[in-house]
Amino acid sequence: MSDIVKLDPTTTDLGELRDRVGNLEEGFGTFQTELAENTAATKRIEGNTAELIEAFANVKGAFKVLNWIGKFARPLGYIAGLLAAVASLWTAYKTGTTVTPK
Predict the structure, then answer these.
(1) CA-CA distance, 82 to 70, in Å (whole number)?
(2) Of 46, 71, 81, 97, which cross-links 92 as Cys (Cβ 3.0–4.6 Å)?
(3) Are the beta carbons of 4 and 17 closer than 8 angstroms?
């Protein structure tokens, strides 16, 4: 930097500074263009994956509901088994069937 900043700048030094500033401006313009393209691609991906994220959220909710149904169905299975056993015992009693061990 000391070679650029001098007490007595010459025309060559100022021309070199102008060239450097021009290069920086060109680089900044390229950076802005690439950033705009990247932002557009990110928004495009966000739009494409929004439905997928919604589907995953729905599946998560479905699993919660199925878990609740499973928790409710287990005691109902026990009750249904008990009722079936009572019904079969009642039928056996009414028909006079006996159960003999083997």
Answers:
(1) 19
(2) 97
(3) yes
pTM score of the predicted model: 0.40
- Written as tens digits, the pLDDT of the chain (102 aa) is 555 555 555 666 777 888 888 888 887 888 888 899 999 999 988 888 888 888 999 999 999 999 998 888 888 889 999 999 999 888 888 888 776 766
Residue 12, both tokens: 């060559």
CA distance 62 to 68: 10
CB-based contact 13:4 (threshold 8 Å): yes
Identify which of 30, 8, 11, 7 has the alpha carbon closest to the alpha carbon of residue 19. 11
- Grouping H, G, I as helix, E, B as strand and the rest as coil, residue 1 is coil
